[in-house]
Amino acid sequence: MTVQLSHPEGLLEQEEYAPVASATGNRLVLLAGQASVAPSGEITANDLAGQVHTALQNVAVGVTGAGGSVADVARLTIYVVGWTQEMAEPLFDGLARAQASDGYAAPLPPITVIGVQALWTPELLVEIEATAVLP
């Protein structure tokens, strides 16, 4: 196992993701921001939960293509257009869908959510960057 997730005592109490990931390996994989798009560029979902889910499916494709798996993901950075606290529920719904369908860890690796004004096209609501450590 290249990534060990932990939740040290004294950090924010929550269950959705682990605030710390320790990784050992010999390859660092940095994925560009992935969105809810097909290889042709077509948008594949129009709601936040759906876009989070399909963006994470694209992250899985990228990590697998680099020779790893979603178990090697050590960190996720999620950019959300117009972020408000009310968006947390659909965001975590999309994350849970990816855990169920694509094998992401429960809890997830460390996550940072950043509100942004816009992404590549107006239809995109979310973009997700990933860092993975491969053996």
List the helices and strands and how they pair.
Elements: E1 3-6, E2 20-23, E3 27-34, H1 48-65, E4 73-81, H2 88-102, E5 111-116, E6 126-134
Parallel strand pairs: 4-5
Antiparallel strand pairs: 1-2, 3-6, 4-6
Helix pairs in contact: 1-2
List its traits.
6 strands; alpha+beta; single chain; 135 residues; four-stranded mixed beta sheet
Descriptive account of the structure:
Helix content is 24%, strand content 30%. The mean pLDDT is 94. Strand 4, helix 2 (88-102) and strand 5 form a beta-alpha-beta unit. It has helices at residues 48-65, 88-102; strands at residues 3-6, 20-23, 27-34, 73-81, 111-116, 126-134. Strands 3-6-4-5 form a four-stranded mixed sheet. A two-stranded antiparallel ribbon has the order 1-2. The chain is built from two helices and six strands. The termini are close together. By secondary structure, the protein is α+β, with helices and mostly antiparallel strands.
